[in-house]
Amino acid sequence: MANESRPCPCDIGDRFDYGGRGQDVQVQHIKAYVCKPPASTDKAVIVIHDIFGWQLPNTRYMADMLAANGYIAICPDFFVGQEAWKPSNDWASFDDWLKTRNAGKIDKEVDVILKYLSEQCGAKKIGVIGFCWGGAAVQHLMLKNPHLKTGVSLYGVIRFFEDRSSLLHPTFFIFAEKDDCIPLEQVTLLEQKLKQNCKVDYEVKIYPGQTHGFVHRRREDINPQDKPYIEEGRKDMINWLNKYL
Fold this sequence. Notes:
Blueprint: E1 23-27, E2 30-35, E3 43-48, H1 57-68, E4 72-76, H2 94-99, H3 107-120, E5 125-131, H4 133-144, E6 150-154, E7 171-176, H5 184-197, E8 202-207, H6 227-244
Parallel strand pairs: 3-4, 3-5, 5-6, 6-7, 7-8
Antiparallel strand pairs: 1-2, 2-4
Protein name: Carboxymethylenebutenolidase homolog
Pfam family, one: DLH
Main location: cytoplasm
């Protein structure tokens, strides 16, 4: 379990030195990073960032990966101008910081982004992926937003929504075996509840030996022993989106 002084032990991991192939845009009151594929498409994916915010190069790298796989990818600032968490911040203040950044209160922003994607980008089929804080946000959206087709929640913090499991859309849950943030018994409980209540396709997958953030916050060249799992997680994510979008 996480120790109490660090309630969400999100180590920033390997910060990618990555500039991004897309561009920053303003969508009503929201700043967002958008990357489009070479060929035109009507499929789009909303990328929901982790506690380190929409400008983290690693998250932009994932958005660009989606674009390279044929999707319009958009990573909005779901903190809407509030400061992202910094590795230098005091973890004792994390709970207070989180109070004003609720992963279950992003519906207004999501509606704005959905409108932009359909009206400005020609998107007809839209999915969502999210990491950590954003993974919890994906779970929230899969429970209530009728306009999204599918979601991938990557190490989404279960305790935010642990009592609700009747998903509206096919959802893929990626977890790490050695995640200090999400104990495996929580994952087991989630699986049991999904089995009882869920009427749509879902999958829960645990990647052996991996830690929180492994799909987007670890560089394969620095962690050769983890490279197969990092690649597998990314491939699984893309395959799920390809299947349901």
